[in-house]
Amino acid sequence: MNLDHFVVARLACDLRGLLAGSRIDGFTASNAGIIFFCYRRGKRYALHILVDSGSPTACVYELGEARKENGPLGWASGVVTLLRGATIDAIHAVPDDRVLYVDVSSRSTFGVPSRSRIVAELQPRKANALVLRETSADVFLIVAAAKQFAAAAGVRNIRTGERYEAPPPRRSTLDRARFIVEASEAAPDAERLARLLAQLDPACSPPLAREVVYRADRVHTSSSARTLIDGWTALHAEVEDALQDARPVVVMRRQERVVACHLIRLGWIADSEGTQIEQVKTVNELCVAELLSARKPDDGQALQALHKRLATMLARATEEGKSLEAARARAADAEEFRVAGETIYAHLSEIQTPAQSFTTEDGRRIILDPLLTAKQNAAEYFRKYKKARSGLPRIAARLRVLRANREYWEHLAWELDRASDHDAAARSAIVAEVAAAVGVKRKPQKQRAPKAGDRTVSLPGGAIALVGRSPKDNERLTFSVAGPNDYWFHVRGVPGAHVIVKTQGRELAVEQIEAAAAVAAGHSRAVGATSVEVDYTRRKHVRRQAAGRPGLVFYTDFNTVRVRPQTP
Q1: Which of 54, 88, 130, 321 has the fewest Cβ atoms nearer than 10 Å?
Q2: According to the model, what pLDDT value does residue 220 have?
Q3: How far apart are CA 93 and CA 10, in angstroms?
Q4: In 3-state terms, the chain is what percent helix, strand and coil (to 5)?
Q5: How many other CB atoms are there within 10 angstroms of residue 42's CB atom?
Q6: Is 65 exposed, middle or buried (0-12, 13-18, 19+ CB in 10 A)?
Q7: Coil, strand, or helix at residue 89?
Q8: Distances (CA, A) of 240 to 9, 215, 234, 246
Q9: What contacts 273, CB < 8 A, 6 or more positions away?
Q10: CA torsion angle 478 482 488 489 (round to 10)
C-alpha cells in the first residue's frame, strides 16, 4: 500500500492530532526504521516510522498502560540526549511530496532551548528516517539517519554532520503545448495519457492521473488534451476539499489486500471486478491495521512449507529404509562367505594360482580373485563375513530409529492437517510446535496468545473427556493432568489426539468407554472411517517413547474397543 502526497498530508493531520504536545521518553531503532515512545495526557503512544519496505509508512498507536522498555538504539544511538524528554510541537507534510516533518523542542540542563526535527521520507524504494538538529533558522544538520549515502550525480548527500537537503521536488517535464501534442498522439492509450498528465503537473500523482483519464473516457468519446486538463482541475479541487474537510478515507481491497487508498473514490480501481470498497475514519487507522497485519505470521504459508518439509523427510526416510533393508538382506547371506572361506582353506593344496573359481566335490562353485592366492581369497571371504555380521546390529538399530521417526513425522503431519480447524491462536501454536520439531526457525512472536482451556467433551453419566490440542498438549494431559488410575484412550496405529477421562477412583461404564473411544477416533486421522479400533488403558501403563518428542508413548495392559468415530 503506497501513499501519494495528498494521503501523506492527511496522515500528517492525523498524527498531529494524536501527538502534538506529547513528550518523547524513549525509542528503538533498526534498519527497518524507528519507533518513538511518547506520553500524552496519561496515555502512552508509539510513533512508528517504517522505511525497510516497499510500502513505507508512519503511524501512531496506543501502547496501553504498560511501560514500553527501550529496545536497541541502532543507528540512532547518538541522539538519546537530544530526543529523550523532548516535546513534539508540530507534525506537517512537505507540500506535494511524501515527506513528514516532526518538529520537537527541548531544553538542556542549563535551560538552553534547542529544536530538532524527525524526518520520515516515505517514497517507495527511497524511504529513509532521519534525526536533524537545528543550527540556525531553518537550517538543520543530520545527526542520525537509517540510510546514509554520499552525493552522486543528481543525488543529495545524506551523511551525519552534513546539512540536510530534502528530496528534490517533482518538477513538470512537459509544458502545456507539448502535452497537447503528445496527448493527441497517445490517445486512446489510457496508461500513456496518465503518465503524460503526471508529467504536466507535479501535483498530479499517478493514481489521480489514472482517475482523470478514467473519468474522461466515461463522459467523452475520446480523451482530448483539453478534456484531461479540465478534468484534472476539477479532480484537484475535489481532493483538496476532501483534505480540508477531513472526510473518511476510501480503501479499495482485492482478496482482502489493500490495493489503494485515497481521500476520494478512485473509480478506475473501485469499478473493476472483485474490488471491495470500505471507509475508515483516518489514514493513521489504516496504516496501523496494515502494520499489524504485516507483523502477523502467515500460518497458511507456514503450514504449506511445513507440509512440504515433512513430506520430504518422510520420502527420504522411506528411501533410506529400502536401502537398509537391502543391506540387511545382503548381510543375511553372510553365512555363505564363511562357508566359502572355510572351503577354500580345506582345499588350499588343490587350488592353483591364478584361478577364477573352484568347484567342490558336491558341485558347488566358489568364485575366486585370480590376482590373489588361495589363502588370500579365503581371507577375503572371512573379511566379507565379518563385515556383514558386524553391520547387522547397526542396520537394525537404524531401522528402529527410522520407524520411530516416520511415526513421529506422520503424527506431526496429521497435527498440521487438523490445525486448519482451530482458531488463529491455536493454529499458530501448532505451527510453532511443528516448526520447532522439524528444525524450522520461525520469527519469535513478542505477544503470546493466551493459553486456551482444556478441550472437553461430555460423556454419558456426567463423565468428561479431555482431548489434546497439539503434541505438547497431549504430553501435558497424559503426564501432568491425568492421575495414575485415570483412563487414557488412543486410536490404534494411526496419528491421533490423546484422550483422558478422569475417574476419581471409579470404574468407567461400558457406554462411557465406548463414548470416550469414539471421541478419540473422531480426533484422529481415522475420523472418516466407519469403524475404528481404539486402545485404552490406565494412565499408569503409559510411558514416554522418546525424549524431545512430545506425544509419542508406549503403553501396556490395554484393551481394545471398535467404535464409529464421533465427529468433532
Answers
A1: 54
A2: 67
A3: 9
A4: 40, 25, 35
A5: 6
A6: exposed
A7: strand
A8: 10, 18, 10, 10
A9: none
A10: -70
Cross-strand partners of 87? 23, 105
Residues in the chain, total: 568
Tens-place pLDDT, residues 106-164: 887 777 888 999 999 998 878 999 999 999 888 999 999 998 887 765 678 888 889 99
Instruction: Provide the percentage of residues in the chain whose pLDDT is more than 70.
Output: 91
Name residue, grid cell 510453532: 432
Q: What is the pTM of this model?
A: 0.56
Q: Computed from CA positions of residues 247, 248, 253, 259, in that sequence, does the dihedral angle turn out positive or negative? A: positive
List the grid coordinates of 3: 501513499
* Rounded CA separation 231/190 (Å): 14
Tell me how far apart the alpha carbons of residues 2 and 53 are, in angstroms, rounded to a whole number.
10
Q: Are 520 and 534 in contact (CB under 8 A)?
A: yes
- Quick one: pLDDT at residue 417? 80
Residue 132 CA to residue 103 CA, distance in Å, equals 9
Asked whether 437 and 309 are in contact (CB, 8 A), the reply is no
Residue range 10-32, pLDDT digits in tens: 999 999 999 999 999 888 888 88
| DSSP codes of every residue in 281-333 | S-HHHHHHHHHHHHHS--HHHHHHHHHHHHHHHHHHHHHHHHHHHHHHHHHHT
* Cα–Cα separations (whole angstroms), residue 229 to 156, 178, 279: 33, 13, 29
- Under a CB-based contact definition with an 8 Å cutoff, are residues 435 and 309 in contact? no
Angle, vertex CA 153, rays to CA 148 and CA 159, nearest 5: 20
Q: Which helix (H) or strand (E) holds 203?
A: none
In angstroms, the CA 490 to CA 497 distance is: 7
Q: What Rg do the C-alpha atoms of the chain give, in angstroms?
A: 37
Indicate the residue type of 449.
Answer: A
Cell of 457: 467433551
Whether pLDDT at 186 is above 50: yes
CA distances 39 to 64, 72, 78, 291, 407, Å, are: 11, 20, 22, 21, 54
CA distance 538 to 447: 38
**Residue 318 pLDDT > 60, yes or no?**
yes
DSSP labels, 389-426: HHHHHHHHHHHHHHHHHHHHHHHHHHHHHHHTTS-HHH
Query: From the centroid of its chain, how far is CA 191?
Result: 35
**DSSP 3-state assignment of 184?**
helix
In sequence order, what are the beta bridge partners of 554?
A: 543
Task: Return d(Cα 257, Cα 276) in angstroms, integer.
Answer: 10
pLDDT at 373: 92
> Residue 102 is inside which H or E element, if any?
strand 99-107
Integer Cα distance of 138 and 120 in angstroms: 17
| Average pLDDT over the chain, rounded to an integer | 86
* DSSP strands (E only) in 362-511: 365-367, 455-458, 464-467, 487-491, 499-501
Burial of 439 (0-12, 13-18, 19+ CB in 10 A): exposed
**Burial degree of 472 (CB within 10 A; 0-12, 13-18, 19+):** middle
Ranges assigned E (strand) in 148-301: 249-254, 257-262, 275-280
